[in-house]
Records
---
Amino acid sequence: MTAPQPSPTVHVVGASDAEESPDERRIQGRSPWVLAWGRLRRDRIAMISLGVIVLIVLIAIFAPVFTLLTGHGPNDQYRLTGLSPQGLPVAPNHEFWLGTDDLGRDILVRIAYGARISLLVGIVATVITVAIGVVVGIAAGYFGGVVDTLLARLVDVVLSVPFLLVAIALVSITGPSLTVVILVIGLFSWASVARIVRGQVLSLREREFVEAARSLGASDTRIMFVDVLPNVLAPVIVYTSLLVPVVILTEATLSFLSLGLPPPTADWGGMISEAVPYYQTSWWFVIFPGAALLITTLAFNLFGDGVRDAFDPRSERLLQQ
Amino acid sequence: MTTTSPAPAAPRAAQEEPLLRLTDVRKYFPVGSSRLWERDRAVVHAVDGVSLTVARGETLGLVGETGCGKSTLARCIARLYDLTSGEVWFDGQDISRLSRRRMRPVRRDVQMIFQDPYGSLNPHRRVGSIIGDPFAIHGIESRRSRRQAAQELMERVGLNPEHYNRFPAEFSGGQRQRIGLARALALRPKLIVCDEPVSALDVSIQAQIINLLADLQQEFGLTYVFISHDLSVVRHVSDRIAVMYLGKIVELAPTDELFELTRHPYTRSLLSALPAPDPDTADSRERIVLAGDVPNPTRPPSGCRFHPRCPKAHLDCAASEPPLLPVLGDGAEHPTACFYPLEPGEDLSLAVSEFAPAAERPRGGTGDTP
Ligand SMILES: Nc1ncnc2c1ncn2[C@@H]1O[C@H](COP(=O)(O)OP(=O)(O)O)[C@@H](O)[C@H]1O
Ligand SMILES: [Mg+2]
């Protein structure tokens, strides 16, 4: 399968037929992915967003560095320095750069560790969602008939189940945990992916290259994954890049409602919910985790918009110039 | 070749067994809603009782207007569709009811080239892997030799093997058709069904592809079923030509005979639309413009399906269907499905259909004009 990275372009000089244009001398083909990446690279906003996303990923990976810099662990409570004599959070100062929370913990360090949860859930749950959705959508679209009808009903059922109620019920049975959060999100979001993919496959199935594969004796599995799948990846990638911020927000919402990770885990949604009683006295307590969440989802959304534009055939001509 | 003794008939028959034999092939498509309680759903009679044979090494041309069922017939031959009824005998074996697994080895021998050079190649795959697909699917050749084999095929069909890693979008229409041809050739098939392989191409490119097809036929001993709506293209490549109208063969003859001794009015009307090869005779050539459109194949006309558009239809043409048999003393190799076939030299532009409204008849059988 074609990796969505740009492949090196090899120029061979001199080995050309008379009728070939200079462009014809390129031996290495440019895949549709490379072309889309080329368009994406020209999109300033998307590239800035990508930079922000990379920064957030680096913060998540190197969260312990913040502990080293400040000397504060994410769950360490500093009752003497981190709380005012009245027992309230302290404002940003030279020791606690972004202030402390109600238990005297360093908000900066907790935000850095919280990024790990947000990204982990955001990415893992999205991957599960997309994997289920793609497989179900391809099967429904490719086989049609009874398979399609059954899967379409399943999609209807999943889309009509009240998500939060089920989440609450599930958490009250199993107790809050990372696995439950990821599963709840993954199992409830795949249906829209399946719908998108099914629609695409319905028309792809009639294309002649699918018939060509069939006339060569290719198996259904091979046709679905070698011939059909690469052609539905573009809309799937667009949808995926727009799904990540939704999943991150959903995770924050679940944590805000105490359905997410159990305390004392540093988690943006949980931090915001802990900060709510203090919004009048300690603005930093709610503002900084909130800003982290906002910037992250905004970056993913803007990047997703750029990806969508890059795959839009109408912008094809931009690259020809 | 005539044997006087009837005893060794069996081995001779086996020897003469055509590579492909269709007997009464039918393919109907149900259309519209598929409600269970709807008993009589509309059915498209895309292919409606086609019987023909194709000998080894020959090219059978198949012509007819768009929508007459050529592609459907091609897909029936390649078993991309299951037949509604009838049989497809390939190389001495009825393949029309083979299971998917039993069909697999046959697929190596029967290949197809498609009309649309854009639609028939997966835009997301490199041409090298597209051409190597047949090897991968049938598990022949290792990964490395697959690449070499694909490059040899590219070279054979006139492509630069160094363009192995390119994507279909980076090739022209003619080059893409060559890619499709390379893929079809990979498994050294016996039969290639070419469904309008040049219809989407420029005229200058058409000739290149047709010449390539002819060269490959020589080199690999290929048999072709060559489909086109363009009689001038088919004439170029075919040993014999079958003319199709609304799912049926209406005339079948060796190429020269079809042009010189045209029997079916429909064939004649197709011929009259061709530019004359000799400018001197161009003026004397009749032009037959068929009345009306191709009828709806969900409800084909009664009797001879061509009768509503036929310039010399008689009333009884609507009553029963003409069989596909030799007419007017033609040989067995030239059957025609017509009750009133054309005599040599008959001028069809003077003919008058008995189904035409009386007012439109310039001189007719009614004769009540003074
Ligand atoms: N999959 C299908 N479902 C329903 N009708 C079809 C299908 N394929 C072809 N047809 C109909 O069958 C007839 C013959 O089509 P086709 O074989 O494509 O003709 P041609 O190749 O000669 O143009 C047309 O009327 C077409 O609409
Ligand atoms: Mg066709």
---
Amino acid sequence: MVSDSPGKRVGKGTVFVKVEVCKGCAYCIEFCPADCLRFSRNYNAKGYHYPVLAKPELCVGCNTCGQYCPDFAIMGMRYKDIDALEATKSAVNDDDRSGAEAPGRKS
Amino acid sequence: MNPTEIMVSDADEKDVDTSRVAPIENPVLSMLRQDRLPHIWCPGCGIGTVVNCFSRALMSSGHDMNNVAVVSGIGCTGRVAGYMNLDSFHTTHGRSIPFATGLRLANPGLKVVVFSGDGDLFAIGGNHFLHAARRNLDMLIVCVNNFTYGMTGGQVAPTTPLKSTQSTMPFGNFEPPMNLPFVADAAGASYVARWTVFHIRQLVRAMKEGMEHKGFSFIEIMSPCPTLYLRRNKLGDGVDQVRYFKEHSVLKNGANTQDVAITATDPIVVGTFVERERPTWLDSRNAQLTATLGDRFVPYGGQNVQK
Ligand SMILES: Cc1ncc(C[n+]2csc(CCOP(=O)(O)OP(=O)(O)O)c2C)c(N)n1
Ligand code: SF4
Ligand code: SF4
Ligand code: SF4
Ligand SMILES: [Mg+2]
């Protein structure tokens, strides 16, 4: 399962954190407009605290956290976009990365 | 937010599994050489955020990425060239602009972006900066100003604020810092802006504007160097500095660049300060030689444009 099952959803969006990539800088936590992230009590293998969605009901999936992250370790997504993506994923072939924000390298 | 609040962590994996896999890869990564990640920048360093913004500016610019090149000098910021998934060049210290000049003139179809530090562009490379601006060479200069020589251990830079201590200024800096937008403006740059690492959306827009602008574009980005500037000056962590930028910036588009010097007490002036039209170096050269030589001169557009 790649995302929360609809029954578990409490907000409009969610975040995906690559725990081992995070350097614990707190940019995401500080600048989240909904103030819904906090550091985990736990450390990653490098010894940094990483963010968790402490108030999932407040997350709107705006990806402001992801836009600040210097290490590309966190990404916010709206459930609406996740669902649309998964619908197209099962319909279309895999390397079509649809979604407004994924133009990638054109050649 | 109060810094200590950040550490509160009642929620944990039992509530939300944050380590689950996203349905798509972070789109920003398509602009980066992923085999080189994680990058070398310290926790709380702002350079990664600037690269994040630059990647998104590239993605939404609509340019063919085979037609964009990044040139960097030496320094922590100079490492950017090595991480971009583009044709990129990591040149010698201070020489990113001469290299970019040759690249651009040999191939005028190319979008050339110079990405480097305050020391690289304004200390050892200052002379090149002045003349490229004077000539209005068509390129974008992205300068990450972290007020120090990060890579070599925090020596005093031409941007270090007065009274700050640095490894080569242990008793406080007494050399007045440069006002970078003023220097760029005075030398003839035709697009000049300043933002900070806090201003991610404005920065993406400015980077796109700077790439589209015909002529010499300069963007100064104030960025935290927690390891060698902030710690030595007891200014907290990277996030504290970015919060400071947020709280102390004032937007003044079109501000007189003479009035935008960074001081310890004044608000930080951000915005687009200069946007003017001037013929680029290539346009001026073509016009001048056509005027004197007439038909005997074939205007130069470069190898991709005409023979
Ligand atoms: C010719 C030469 N002189 C000096 C150096 C040492 N050196 C490497 S990076 C650097 C300064 C970098 O400062 P800046 O451009 O501000 O980059 P930052 O690391 O702060 O991003 C210096 C002096 C060098 N590599 N080459
Ligand atoms: S996606 Fe937006 S609301 Fe959700 S955690 Fe990130 S910044 Fe906050
Ligand atoms: S911004 Fe990125 S690196 Fe910094 S704490 Fe958040 S996830 Fe970790
Ligand atoms: S030394 Fe300073 S500029 Fe260099 S990576 Fe570390 S924080 Fe960033
Ligand atoms: Mg520097």
